[in-house]
Design goal:
Largest sheet of chain A: 7 strands, mixed
Largest interface: A-D, 39 and 40 residues
CATH class of the largest domain in chain A: Alpha Beta
Shape of chain A: globular
CATH topology of the largest domain in chain A: Dihydrodipicolinate Reductase, domain 2
Number of helices of chain A: 10
Structural class of chain A: alpha/beta
CATH architecture of the largest domain in chain A: 2-Layer Sandwich
Order of helices and strands of chain A: EHEHEHEHEHEHEHEHEEHEEEH
Oligomer: homotetramer
Helix content of chain A: 25-40%
Number of strands of chain A: 13
Chain lengths: 337, 337, 337, 337
């Protein structure tokens, strides 16, 4: 049994981790922390029967668990990562604090200096389909962002194969409201979000662009110039990224299809749809799947659609998948395939 | 042209008033007040092209308009009512402050003393189908609550006819989230309300019971004992009240039907459905309608369903209907029939 | 490993069974039948990666599995039950064909004679919290209806204790649209159901009343007279039943609470909420839970709220729970607790 | 008073016309036709109090009205247009049959020959912001498609100004389910569409591309190559088109903004948002507005967002606006500004 702790357990990603652990035969829950609800039982915070008492992060002993999941805001997470690592415990950090390799990139996109730039090189970017071997050995795992997971899985095979003929990548993403977290705002007030669709931070402004560019550039054929437009959907869960790209003449749809089939052969959670089918949220919600479809607009121009559940493959499910890899377990434990 | 002012214009009822005035050929807009958004244009607060600049209530001159609509919280509204009346301007108060005739009832349900009990007798309860003549002359109009509008219109004919055989009235109501206002809360956070249904304040706790009992008792056959269970629906608008009552043996469904047809004959906004049809939110949303259906469970037991749009017939539309009556206009102006 | 077959696998209950089996460590899938989609792969019918080829019921060999799940319409299921039983295979029938003990009741509520009245006495009503011992030995299990599951679990302790002072039970239920199945109708067309709430078959008309009365009468204190009003909610899943009952003077809320705690002590899926909390769909959706809350209106009058996911505890999850009991497994396998 | 008839009154566009006429002071309703519901009252078909009796198209006299609105499928509409024109009555055709000027284009996109190619040149494309003068004199008005209305209004100023540096235009559109009509399909079944997002007909397949290319090419700077990806949103109403374009270096965002302000100055229904604001469905739903926002990704690359209510500005509202122009009325009558 692996003993786990959740730091910041009362947001949606913390809640999703707990659900996953309930299904997981090899996990034993240590502590769940919350600053807002310290001393309360989990069932008082969420409509569920989980009865763990929430403790403050201060009073949780990181050394008492094998791995700690950090569900904290970026900028705050970094200090907790240090503390947990100091206790010798492995960390899966769901914040953005260790996803970028370069402190300069972090500074540029997050508008403040990284306070532990020296630790950036220790962190492994936790996308199992790309970095499985490093993940197995990681002590500090940076769990990828939700949008980047959908975009990188959706475009990386093309980048790696050098198939893209235009460095301009246009990504139109749509996300469920849970991606905005459990904090209150007018944007996520039911009456404002329901029956609505709102673009936000469109163009070249959203911080997740940094992860997309880092990982696609690392795959090859770049540097790429991502245009990224997130839209807030009136649904609870799910991200669909519709991506417009141009490929070299030799890359027919059939050949691209084969490329993706090979890239994801054996992957338990990535599914490339047959030609003619398109990825939807219904394919992925409440599962750890990423479902990808490939369409040709005209020769040399493709549309890649990539769907994930933002709380599962886009956050907590991927974190559990990473934990399974880190501890040598079947990758699928605790997850819906 | 009637010159109107809106005090508290940036909640959902204020917004709905503005929409109605845009359609109304006899209304000229004076001031719109807001404390949170003073100095901003209305289009910065709501996704719409209305360009009025919001002023503080302090700086609005109540004497500059023919009628002021007050969209303020109960307990706060009472002072503004005094101020507007002191300027000689007629008031349509959308709060609960002047709906109850007895200060003791107010104290009981609102947990604090009414600060102007002497003014309670001046106020007219603004349900046009019952008090049209008094409304025409009213200077201080208390616009009814949303749930009470659906319940009183749905049950009053039976009470007035002395048809009810059991004083126990069971009301199971379902409301859209806009009924909870534009203030932020976890309950109305999209992720919490969406795909959910939550009962709240069920039994004999919700303040709107006081209006229901006052008005049904006034109609006759009481005193009644209302059991009232509101539920929060994952929709933006609409109230459906499903009401379980017992009637005296002589009241066949056909006879009850006739009673309702007569009670609402000529009413522009109340529709009694033919037997076999049931009231739904789709009948009423975005209109000032109240739609009522009558069903027999078994001889002597009926189910009355009554539907309204909580923001229109349940609030701002009814307020405009009342204004039309107060100023001798066609009752339907500015409203969707 | 238990080998299972699904007859009628392409409705929502069949789909939910498949999802459960994917999580179940002791189940091996035999056949999945479909008449509409014979020869297609499951992934062509639902947005999922399940790759079973659908066969016609005709060509499936019931003798090749340990248990067959029947997801067929009532009236049709009965013949298939006979065929499967003739092969010696145990049956879990999700239709209504074997839920009622009396052929006369079946005839009354379903408007046609039961074609195998002699088999009715063999069937066990599959509500584990009541009939666990009989279920363990059952060869023909009648899986309860969705509304009855919520109502019986919600009211049975009161009936059994003889606590109800009035035989009239008022049940106001709200259900998600998946309860209406995958067949097309104007009622379940997105535009008609969305942002709407529709009562239907209210009063004493819905067939599920027969199960509620049968089981509550069997518990004691009856015969009861159920008034039942289902409403179609604009959500995919979930049933909330709000039930209005009167109890004898000695039954204080605290005592009723204790009664329920005892009645469901040790039950893995039934949760009685602490006083002051109310059951919601959020408590149960995507799980096999039934969550019950108890509220006092005034001394002697209670409101019981009971929530389930109509596709899980209201159908396929309960069927899997029954299978687990029938085969001596941990009741929770394949289910979300 | 203008006397109007609706042919095909029981779809969503017919229903929306009726709602608009209820608000319109200068319209008198002649006939409403329906083949499926002949002889029934309108209130039996839609949840509303409209009491017109539906007649078959056969029995309606087109000569008895001043203008007939045709809400029929393409391919079917053309014959009815002929019949109404033969009676000397003006026609507003909401189908696609007369939107394209070239019979060859029609054949290419609709896969069958146009049966009255000679009439194509008589038809006026009913986009008031472009063709107001021709509309005023039109006897045969082709009301634009919903997606094209959002796209043409969103991009035409750039095309007309010769500002686009790349003929490739990428349009990612999201539409509410009412755009798919009232006919039943699995795609529009509540359970399948709710909490989902589905791309469909993406790339260069959707018939509405023909209108977009025709009108943008006519504006100048083309020919353009539209890539168009519609997505089905889980909302009842609204279209948001997110459009990715490249402009010549001299077209700064500020200059483009000025261009749009001038292009739509005085237009009662088109609103260009100030910089920093983005168009959403909330801006337009239940109104005849088109709301446009302009964003710069990087110098030379823009994102134009354009929102309309697909049933209003995208169909029936625009049809009423066109009628108002055709009959010399205030363009805003019967419409929500």
């Amino acid at each position: 049994m692996i003993k786990v702790g959740i730091i910041g357990a009362t947001g949606y990603t913390g809640n999703e981790l707990l659900k996953s652990f309930t299904l997981h035969p090899e996990v034993e829950l240590g502590f769940c922390t919350s600053e807002s609800y310290t001393g309360q039982r989990y069932s008082e915070v969420f409509a569920c029967p989980y009865d763990q008492t929430l403790v403050s992060a201060e009073s949780a002993d990181p050394g008492s668990v094998d791995v700690a999941f950090l569900c904290l805001p970026h900028g705050v997470s970094v200090d907790m990562v240090k503390r947990v690592r100091a206790a010798g415990t492995r960390v899966i950090d769901l914040s953005a604090d260790f996803r970028l390799h370069e402190a300069a990139d972090y500074q540029r996109w997050y508008n403040h200096d990284h306070t532990e730039p020296g630790m950036l090189s220790e962190a492994v970017f936790g996308l199992p389909e790309v970095y499985r071997d490093q993940i197995a050995k990681a002590d500090l795992l940076a769990n990828p962002g939700c949008f980047p997971t959908s975009v990188i899985l959706g475009l990386r095979p093309l980048a790696e194969a050098g198939a893209l003929s235009d460095r301009r990548l246009i990504v139109d993403s749509k996300t469920g409201v849970s991606g905005a977290g459990r904090g209150l705002s007018l944007t996520t007030h039911f009456v404002e979000a329901n029956e609505n669709l709102s673009p936000y931070n469109i163009g070249y402004r959203h911080r997740h662009i940094s992860e997309m560019e880092q990982e696609l550039n690392a795959a090859g054929g770049g540097p790429y110039e991502v245009t990224f437009s997130p839209h807030l959907l009136p649904v609870t869960r799910g991200i669909l990224s519709t991506m417009y790209v141009w490929v070299k003449p030799e890359w027919s749809l059939a050949r691209v299809h084969e490329l993706y089939e090979q890239a994801y052969a054996g992957e338990p959670f990535v599914h490339v749809l047959p030609e003619g089918k398109l990825a939807t949220l219904a394919h992925v919600n409440y599962t750890n799947r990423c479902v990808i479809s490939l369409s040709e607009v005209r020769p040399g121009q493709l549309i890649v659609c990539s769907a994930i559940d933002n709380l599962v493959k886009g956050a907590s499910g991927q974190a559990v998948q990473n934990m399974n890899i880190m501890f040598g377990l079947d990758e699928r434990l605790g997850l819906i395939v």
